[in-house]
Amino acid sequence: MSTSPSDPDLSARAAAERLLNLAPAADGLARRFAAAGHELALVGGSVRDGLLGRLGEDLDFTTDARPPQVLELVKGWAEAVWDVGIAFGTIGCQKDGYKLEITTYRSEAYDRTSRKPAVSYGETLEGDLIRRDFTVNAMALRLPRREFVDPHGGLLDLAKRTLRTPATPEESFSDDPLRMLRAARFAAQLDFTVAPEVVGAMREMADRLKIVSAERIRDELTKLLLAGDPRPGLGLLTDTALAEHVLPELPKLRLEIDEHHRHKDVYEHTLTVLDRAIALEDDGPDLVLRLAALMHDVGKPRTRRFEPGGGVSFHHHELVGAKMTKKRLRELKYSNEIVDDVARLVELHLRFHGYGDGEWTDSAVRRYVRDAGPLLPRLHKLTRSDCTTRNRRKAAALAATYDSLEARIERLRQQEELDAIRPDLDGNQIMRVLGVSPGPVVGRAYKHLLELRLDQGPLEHDAAVSALREWWAAQPEHQDAAAAL
What we know:
This protein is an alpha+beta fold and 485 residues long. Helix content is 52%, strand content 10%. The chain contains 24 helices and 13 strands. It has helices spanning 12-22, 25-35, 45-51, 67-74, 125-130, 154-160, 169-175, 178-190, 196-204, 214-225, 231-239, 249-252, 266-280, 287-295, 300-303, 317-331, 336-348, 362-372, 376-386, 392-416, 427-434, 440-456, 461-473, 476-484; strands at residues 40-43, 58-63, 80-82, 90-95, 98-104, 106-109, 118-121, 140-143, 147-149, 162-163, 193-194, 305-306, 312-313. A hairpin with an 8-residue loop joins strand 6 and strand 7. The termini are far apart.
């Protein structure tokens, strides 16, 4: 059962019973705290998700006990204990399949220059709740007495699917500017509407995000992008100017007209490509694919040219966009693997359009597979998603053409071990045939044989040796040695 706009009068008692039935592990923990004279409450996202019928295995608690006291209370009871969050007042543990995080009542706020919140401990549950980001996350269940605590109307906001702040939005976002990104993330994750006064504060305080670390911004952006429907969250970031401090390339796309006039602007086209890429995912949310869809056209503003007759072109925007993508994702502190993979997809996303009606040679198809490497399945999805014409006949033709390309790739894969394209002779064989030692010559010979493999497909051993000797005969080193004799 889940809270919805049809049941806004859900009682506190009913809410408490629903939550306790979902989290039986909480009772045993609460009794230990009560016996030691401490308070404990299920709180925040756990309460919200429990009432929405989507509670997972991660449970959040708050308490008046300080972290060293929490450690003593869970030792011997929990199956595992960790204290990586102790600097922020949080102790984690595992029990009966649940991961529990227990945080001391606290308040946290930024000063005007700090990139990290200053944590101070609080004394009451009510004081802890008012410092939380949104009213739907400011509900609690006191344990073990099972008292539902909702001082800011979170239950009603949950039923209305509305995001408001417990304090004024200005106070809340001043305490932690990252909450503005969380508003966009919850809009995407939970399909919530952000209250007008909250949107207004986000717009007015967007510059405050500058003091938040890149790592925290990256983590919120990732959660937003991995939501079921990222579009509302991305739209909110753009409309409030928060995107200027997260992905400034995104709002700039609103200024560009797609060269085929298929969309009112490249921004809308980009969100459509993202939607289509998500629809093609077959194994859960794919961050690399979604980032590539979001960034695939960011090079267009820098490459826009007005052509005679009123047309617009964006020549080589994929190469410019790949460089811009690397720069942005590195600034957001994404891993090198993610940065490289996303940038490579952006670089390759237009390659298919040179395929025409199937004019590519087998050599071109091999290079397409070689250049994509393990990213080929994602490149297929990104390329298909980028074909967004409203002309049904043209859309069907593009889809059929790409079907043809994939079929050719599969045929070559079966014939040639296409996923592991390498020369027909390895480095040791090259040295034996040429009579040379390890060095630059071997690398150049290997590269030559690889190009030959891509152009002609697999060669028999004798043919590969003959081709290698023919290449070697034309090299300056060999000719100089022959002249010396």
